[in-house]
Amino acid sequence: MNSAKVWLAEREAEKWVLYLGFLAIFAFFALTLHDDGFLSRRNLVNIVLQTAPATIMAVGLVFVLSAGEIDLSFGSIVAVSALLAAVVMREAPAVYGIAAGIGTGVAIGAINGAFVAYLRLPSFLVTLATMGLFAGIARSLTDLQSVPVLNGFFTGFFGSGSLAGIPSLILWTIVAVLVGHVILKETRFGAHVLATGDNAQAAAVAGIRVARLRLSVLAISGGCAGLAGLLYAGRLQAAKYTLGESDLMTVIAAVIVGGTALAGGRGSIIGACAGSLLMGMLNNGLILMGLSVSEQMIVRGLIILAAVAVSMREISR
Amino acid sequence: MIMNTDPGSSAVLSLRNIHKRFGGVVAIRDFSMDLGAGEIVALVGDNGAGKSTLVKVISGVFPPSSGSMAMDGNAVSFANSSAARRRGIEVVYQDLALANQQPVYMNLYLGRELRNPRTGLLDRRRMITESEQLVRDLDVNLPNVRARIRDMSGGQRQGVAIARATHFARKLILLDEPTAALGVAETAKVESIIDSLRARGLSILMISHSLDQVFRLADRITVLRRGQQVATRDANGTDKNEIVSMITGLH
Ligand SMILES: Nc1ncnc2c1ncn2[C@@H]1O[C@H](COP(=O)(O)OP(=O)(O)OP(=O)(O)O)[C@@H](O)[C@H]1O
Ligand SMILES: [Mg+2]
């Protein structure tokens, strides 16, 4: 065990693959799509804006995976939260809408968590079931109708607004990533999340309250999904049951590619953020290349498969 | 000083008629023992005799099915292992209970991580320097406390688990096969650590399959066979042959 190896491990050297892949794909699009405006400031900013909700979902998912659990339901939570927030804001000021959106996310996540923590059901099965359950609730909430969000403060705060020239969606992303990173890496709670995902029995005999922790990480994931729902509603100025529907694969891929272990014990918020940007860049580039939707799905699937294979190999070395 | 007619009242730990069942399996039936300050009791028995189960009952991992426990003459029952730890009980579990992907120093402080009082955030620097000190004091062969457990040898892992328990124990330390993965020199080192713990006045319950080791260290030896407590002997008043025949049940 030499110190160079420790130095690399502490800096999570396996993520270098991600950053290299990121640069390679960026360079590829920059060269091939030069004339299609890939490198334009507008397009690059757009990529970041579009990935904002997925990045925030990814922050929540890192906590869940690090703790050795999984959440498949966050996409459905996005829709329920956004719809409830939009319905509340028909009558009430934005604060109530925000509280409704985040509160719904946390509460639904905590329900997932209660099944996992106290009934000892596997999170895979619980959230597989609630993914469908919450999607059904989202559909029935407004009878498949989309709900416009006309509150100007809200759409500025979560969508079109900006502070010191930085768009609000980017600010929300930065805040979520920084707060998530500090909690995971610099607090006792974060250390306990990683220890529990690593060896739950060891964590339990060390006095860590494992059940409560499992509930917490799923509630965090729900809360992040709620916030992501608000960002969608703010940007699109409407909420619909389809929000978040197609984010499941992208977000899981972003988190895994970002160096978080599917089996728990290892997590990286910064890596997940980079992974999410990578996914966004991929989407954007494939569209600019003029691929049809079905071609995009195939290429994206293949690239994610390759990326996940490489990052898993690095991790389990 | 309060005098009490109960012989167990002066003991750091006393167990009375402990039973432990797992469904239909009786892992321990009717186990009693007193352990005084600065005393080492060895628990011996074949595989599956119930030794680890007894350790986990004492450390609050499993509640006993029946029976009672007292520390310093006061009845105790531990709802979980934190409760036992608060009473100064530390354990080296047979499976070591380490988080393999975390660094050594985080394992040493698992569940009681040091924080910076001003920010409330983890004080990694202090955990690292204190871990380095601890590793040096115990002469554990560990080049870097920032390395992850999974990159350690079996003996080094055992060293981490022992260092953790000895650092935090205040009253009682339970060692479940603490030298199982160790070489000759490391075993000698751990035995001298155990001796120094006794000198500090800690009570020690140790499990070992090495009878030589048991006779080197223990004041008393208690034998379990298929969950049954066969006998307890002073180490001076018995020999290996007698212990072996009690372990195997052959005379
Ligand atoms: N959690 C559990 N659930 C059910 N049965 C258990 C459990 N833990 C232990 N047992 C059973 O209790 C008995 C005693 O096991 P224990 O681990 O205490 O043995 P041991 O004396 O430590 O053996 P070894 O020397 O192999 O470590 C065994 O029959 C075992 O199968
Ligand atoms: Mg055992």
Overview of this protein structure:
The complex is a heterodimer of chains A (about 325) and B (about 250). Chain A is mainly α and about 325 residues long. Chain A has one domain (about 15-310): ABC transporter involved in vitamin B12 uptake, BtuC. In chain A, about 75% of the residues lie in helices and about 5% in strands. Chain A contains 14 helices and four strands. In chain A, the strands form two sheets. In chain A, strands 1-4 form a two-stranded antiparallel ribbon. Chain A has a two-stranded antiparallel sheet with strand order 2-3. The longest helix of chain A is centred in the last third of the chain and has 27 residues, at about 210-235. In chain B, the strands form two sheets. Chain B has a six-stranded mixed β-sheet with strand order 6-7-8-3-9-10, sandwiched between helices. The N and C termini of chain B lie far apart (about 45 Å). By secondary structure, chain B is α/β, with parallel strands linked by helices. In chain B, about 30% of the residues lie in helices and about 25% in strands. Chain B has eight helices and ten strands. Chain B has one domain: Rossmann fold (3-Layer(aba) Sandwich), CATH 3.40.50. Classes of the chains: A mainly alpha (about 325), B alpha/beta (about 250). The interface of A and B includes residues 9, 192, 201 and 205 of A. The complex binds adenosine-5'-triphosphate (ATP) and magnesium ion (MG). Adenosine-5'-triphosphate binds next to strand 2 and helix 1 of chain B.
Topology readout:
The complex is a heterodimer of chains A (317) and B (251).
Chain A: H1 3-10, H2 15-32, H3 41-66, H4 74-91, H5 94-118, H6 123-141, E1 147-148, H7 152-160, E2 162-163, E3 166-167, H8 168-186, H9 188-198, H10 200-205, H11 210-236, E4 238-239, H12 248-257, H13 269-288, H14 293-315
Antiparallel strand pairs in A: 1-4, 2-3
Helix pairs in contact in A: 2-13, 2-14, 3-8, 3-9, 3-11, 3-12, 3-13, 4-5, 4-6, 4-11, 5-6, 5-11, 7-11, 8-9, 9-11, 12-13, 13-14
Chain B: E1 13-22, E2 25-35, E3 40-44, H1 51-58, E4 66-71, E5 74-76, H2 81-86, E6 89-92, H3 104-108, H4 124-137, H5 154-168, E7 172-176, H6 184-199, E8 203-207, H7 211-217, E9 220-225, E10 228-234, H8 240-248
Parallel strand pairs in B: 3-8, 3-9, 6-7, 7-8
Antiparallel strand pairs in B: 1-2, 1-4, 4-5, 9-10
Adenosine-5'-triphosphate is lined by residues 22, 25, 27, 45, 47-53, 94 of chain B.
